Amino acid sequence: MVVTSLLIAITASMPVAMADDEGLEPPMYKTHLPPITEVTILESGVTYPASPEAAKECSSFKLSPQEIRDYIGKAAEVAKHDYLHVLDWSPCSTNGIVTFENGVTGTWEIQQYRAGSLILSNGRTLYLYCPQCQAKSFPAADK
Known about the structure:
By secondary structure, the protein is α+β, with helices and mostly antiparallel strands. Helices cover 22% and strands 32% of the residues.
């Protein structure tokens, strides 16, 4: 009886992912970021060292400054755990620096499968996901 109650309590306290037709998406929250004033791209087509065989595929992963603005503006915040363990991981990414209207800057990284991160100069770190974002280098979005 105690074990059953414990399992029910643990299960009830776990975050619930939103089911969609294709699978699961983690809970997503508004980022409440101010407008962007500047985007700088530092690296495009980056391949993670753990996946050197993807270098050819990754070399074509490039986002324009406007695509990056759109991504950061539309992306939702997800929990670090979900970013690391639920979202699809890609060996391909692009990264750079963003400046916001309020003077806060951030270092961003966006992966090919629409996960990303943003480390802000005010100490805040956001883990991002934007399943609806469109860019030439993103795979076709799920309907």
